[in-house]
Write a structure and sequence with these properties.
about 20% strand; Aminopeptidase; 10 strands; 9 helices; binds zinc ion; seven-stranded mixed beta sheet; binds coenzyme A
Amino acid sequence: MNARTEHTNKKKSISSNTLGEFSHTPLFISNCLVFVKMVGYRFFLHTIQWIPKMGRKFCPRCGSENIKWILPQEWSKWSCQECGYTGPLIIEDGEIGEKIRENYMKKQEAETIQRCGEEDFQDIYEIINDAAQAYKGEIPEDRWTEPYMPLEELRHEILEGVEFWGYYEPELVGVMGVQDKGDVALIRHAYVLTWKQGHGIGGKLMEKIKTQTDKPMLVGTWKAATWAIRFYGKHGFKEVDEETKNKLLRKYWRIPERQIEESTVLTLL
Ligand SMILES: CC(C)(COP(=O)(O)OP(=O)(O)OC[C@H]1O[C@@H](n2cnc3c(N)ncnc32)[C@H](O)[C@@H]1OP(=O)(O)O)[C@@H](O)C(=O)NCCC(=O)NCCS
Ligand SMILES: [Zn+2]
């Protein structure tokens, strides 16, 4: 064997050794895969399931994940695109978030009409004063006040026996009051949030209230509120003549003479 052949053989043996090492590599990888399959598969799945839950944020009111920072104004405040919640509170615990969501959806399915409670006082106040914007520019200027119904007046009305019924979605969006006056029942303060008007909410409240009394029902409203007169007309109420109206308003209501002048009364006998 000359030097040249010896060199070639050395080269061959090196390359066959090297090849031999690599020829074990596929086995190593497949062993790894078997290991991952047998031991790590469950752990792997578990981790994958948790990745999307990491960093999840839920609205504290409706459990929606469709929430955003109020930018650029406030980094610390969140706003829910679904229920309109805005505030600093946010739920980061997936389990609690999902529970809130579940309860909210259940309530959402069951839109209800219920007697309002003390806890609804502030919402009633806001609904009345939002819906009453319809009067602005329609009723005589000297009868318009801002807010239309102050808190104390609303409190007074409730103490005088006005019982409010509410339409819940599940947030309160519309109210209608009923006041027992012995031989008759008065409809008092029918208001639906402006952006919710014209979708049948007032109508459903009216039908519910009708089932609560056998007495003749009276309602008073501004002469200028032609839409409200139409609304009561659709529900069977008939407008009375001027003289009867004056008598009824003086008998069952406590309102100033000026308001009597500008009002009308409808009855459902
Ligand atoms: C009057 C009121 C309580 C009725 O509730 P609502 O949920 O809008 O009423 P509904 O959707 O059941 O009925 C709509 C009907 O009411 C009348 N109506 C009153 N306001 C309306 C509005 N803003 N948009 C559409 N319809 C209105 C229409 O006659 C309509 O009849 P139509 O369906 O034949 O068009 C509500 O519109 C409201 O809050 N208005 C402003 C305040 C007010 O006038 N209150 C009455 C106090 S006495
Ligand atoms: Zn929300």
